[in-house]
C-alpha cells in the first residue's frame, strides 16, 4: 500500500502561509533547496525545474494531491507538476487541463483508492483545509521548517482535528537555518 505524505513548508510557529496565502517567506533556498533538487526533484513545480535545469526522475512520489487554493496560487501554472499524476480537491467546479484531475466528492474514498494502487507514495502538498480533512489517511509528515515567525496565517491543519500521534524519524538542519523534520503516524 502506498503512503500519503504531507510534505509542506512551515514557519516555526506552524503556519504554511500568511493569511492572504503568501508563502514566499517559507521558500527554501541554498543548501535546503539543493537537497530537494537532489532527493525530491518531483516536488519542484515545472517552472522551477526548468529554471534549475532539473530533469531527474521521480524518487519518492508519482502522485500529487492539492487543494484548490494551493492549485490556484498566484503565478501558478495550469499543470504545476506534469511529472506527477495531479489531483485537485475542490468542492465547486474548477477548469483544469487534461492532466489535472479534480476530486469534487468522496475525498476520503478516492484517496484510499489511490493508496491501494501500486506505485510510489502520494504527496499531499497543501493546503491546510485539505490536510485536516485527510488527517485519518496521512501516514507521514515531512515539514520543511523555515526559521521565521509569521505570527498568524494558514495553519498546518485548518480545522479542529483529533489528537493524532506521530513519531519523529529524522531531522536535518541546513546552513540556511531550514530544518527538514520527518514524522510517521503511530498506531
Automatic annotation (TrEMBL):
Matches recorded under Gene3D superfamilies: Dihydrofolate Reductase, subunit A
Taxonomic source organism: Geodermatophilus maliterrae
Listed name of the protein: Dihydrofolate reductase family protein
InterPro entries: DHFR-like_dom_sf, RibDG_C, Riboflavin_Biosynth_HTPR
Pfam families to which the protein is assigned, alphabetical: RibD_C (PF01872)
Segments forming domain Bacterial bifunctional deaminase-reductase C-terminal: 8-179
Transmembrane segments: none
Amino acid at each position: 500500500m502506498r503512503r500519503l505524505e504531507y510534505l509542506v513548508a512551515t514557519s516555526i510557529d506552524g503556519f504554511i502561509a500568511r493569511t492572504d496565502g503568501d508563502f514566499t517567506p517559507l521558500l527554501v533556498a541554498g543548501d535546503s533547496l539543493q537537497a530537494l533538487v537532489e532527493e525530491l526533484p518531483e516536488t519542484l513545480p515545472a517552472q522551477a525545474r526548468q529554471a534549475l535545469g532539473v530533469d531527474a526522475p521521480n524518487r519518492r512520489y508519482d502522485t500529487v494531491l492539492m487543494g484548490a487554493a494551493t492549485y490556484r496560487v498566484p503565478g501558478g501554472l495550469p499543470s504545476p507538476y506534469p511529472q506527477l499524476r495531479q489531483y485537485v480537491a475542490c468542492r465547486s467546479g474548477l477548469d483544469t487541463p487534461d492532466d489535472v484531475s479534480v476530486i469534487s466528492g468522496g475525498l476520503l474514498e478516492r484517496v484510499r483508492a489511490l493508496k491501494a494502487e501500486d506505485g510510489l507514495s502520494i504527496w499531499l502538498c497543501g493546503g491546510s483545509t485539505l490536510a485536516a480533512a485527510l488527517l485519518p489517511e496521512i501516514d507521514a509528515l515531512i515539514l520543511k521548517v523555515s526559521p521565521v515567525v509569521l505570527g498568524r496565517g494558514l495553519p498546518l491543519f485548518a480545522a479542529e482535528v483529533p489528537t493524532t500521534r506521530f513519531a519523529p524519524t529524522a531531522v536535518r538542519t541546513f546552513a540556511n537555518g531550514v530544518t527538514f523534520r520527518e514524522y510517521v503516524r503511530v498506531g
